[in-house]
Amino acid sequence: MTRAPIALTSGEPAGIGPELAGPAWQALRGEVPFFWIGDPSHLDCAYEVITDPSQAAQCTDLPVLPHDFGSPRTPGSPQPAQAQAVIDVIARAVDLAQRGAASAVCTAPIHKKALQDGAGFAYPGHTEYLAALAGQSDVVMMLASSALRVVPVTIHIAFEDVPNALTPELLETTIRITRRDLQNRFGLTEPRIAVAGLNPHAGEGGKMGRQEIELISPVLDRLKNEGMQITGPHSADTMFHAAARTLYDVAICMYHDQALIPIKTLDFDHGVNVTLGLPFIRTSPDHGTAFDIAGKGLANSSSTIEALKLAWAMNKD
């Protein structure tokens, strides 16, 4: 059976999201089928309007499932009136994926403050909103490239809140979801998992913090006893050089920047955000709205292209 195309959302129209769809279509046409959901007036490329995702395969130009935003795009300046449409496009893509009309969802960047100011958006980011739409309480954010895969256990919270948010239950759930999806979506029979400590030097035997001794190690010991290939807690400052990265398939990190700084340093243009634990595939380019370059013809579509390619590769149906 022919796989359904991927739904690519418009993202924040004042950012570079609408500028990424056309170059991605030119790069992937005939290789990765997808369609764009958004306001056609926001595009600066050739497109064809479709009424159903199944029509995307017959399109020569970018297939567009229209969604009226009610006003023109203003690069660099978010419009509060458009915030609800940005949110609705995401929900529409998820609905298509859950009904099988789309094989995956690839989301262009959103701007959380713009959505909060314009529509009272109640979620810290895409990941949490997608979990709510899917009715899933436990999802995991993974950043992936050919150089590295990383998973932050805590995500969009202030650094001062990390120690209290980091619990044995959250750590164990994150590791289990990561392992399961690496097996089911990425074809790794027994993923090798490396876990970072929270503190410098992984606590240095309790001299720089006791979370490694009292929280992280007991969870890892229990999972090792189940047969998981898991190591740690490691000192995060020695986990990401070239030789270290050959020893694991994914690095589990304790907080947002501990995970994202190394992957964005190693492969900024090709990193992909993947949400694990959802009943559908979701990827996203690993960058933001880039208001400073929006509308200037400077947007780099590499990460969007990689996100679409990975979403297609993850689909095993």
Compose a concise summary of this entry:
It catalyses: 4-(phosphooxy)-L-threonine + NAD(+) = 3-amino-2-oxopropyl phosphate + CO2 + NADH. By secondary structure, this protein is an alpha/beta fold.
| Residues in helix, % | 25-40%
What's the order of the H and E elements? EHEEEHEHHEEHHEHEHEHEEH
Number of strands: 12
Report the top-level CATH class of the largest domain. Answer: Alpha Beta
Major sheet details: 12 strands, mixed
DSSP strand content: 15-25%
Could you please describe the fold and organization of this structure?
It is a single chain. With 317 residues, the chain is α/β, with parallel strands linked by helices. It folds into two domains: 1-137 and 275-317, Isopropylmalate Dehydrogenase (3-Layer(aba) Sandwich); 147-266, Isopropylmalate Dehydrogenase, CATH 3.40.718.10. It is built from ten helices and twelve strands. It has helices spanning 17-28, 83-98, 112-119, 126-134, 162-165, 168-184, 211-225, 242-245, 256-266, 302-314, and strands spanning 6-9, 34-38, 47-49, 62-66, 104-106, 140-144, 149-152, 192-196, 229-234, 250-253, 272-276, 282-285. Strands 3-4-2-1-5-12-11-6-7-10-8-9 form a twelve-stranded mixed beta sheet, sandwiched between helices. It is an enzyme of class 1 (oxidoreductase). It catalyses: 4-(phosphooxy)-L-threonine + NAD(+) = 3-amino-2-oxopropyl phosphate + CO2 + NADH. Its cofactor is Zn(2+); Mg(2+); Co(2+).
